[in-house]
Amino acid sequence: MIEPHANKLRHGRFSEPHRIYLVTTVTHGRQPVFNDLWAARTLIHTLRNAQNLKHADTLAFVVMPDHLHWLMQLGERLSLSRVMGSVKSNAARQLGISKLWQPGFHDHALRREEDLADLARYIIMNPVRAEMVDKVGHYPHWDAIWL
Known about the structure:
Elements: H1 4-10, E1 20-26, H2 37-52, E2 56-64, E3 67-74, H3 80-95, E4 106-109, H4 116-124, H5 126-129, E5 142-144
Antiparallel strand pairs: 1-3, 1-4, 2-3, 2-5
């Protein structure tokens, strides 16, 4: 079931080619699917494939046990919803999990005054803030073009 606030996030959503977005999506029931190394690497491979297909350029990401934060620049061929739908369905298919994701996702279109490198650092520090590791370098499921 879609939460009432999730519908509000979708209302008025507009995809702009070449715009930079921070996208967050959560596993179904917040199951820690990505505690599994193979599952996490499969999701990362799916993000890289989206880049190879020119759907989105990855600027930074972190795969947490039950969610993904992805800072990306949207390509020009697909809408943000289509890119996310593709990433989510491809990961689910490759992992053999029919209900991998909760419906929808949260997105934030970045404004010009927002510092991308600072935002990337914030994203990749999630495992440290969650006290999963003491240094980001000790967590294997992240990347950023600046680091």
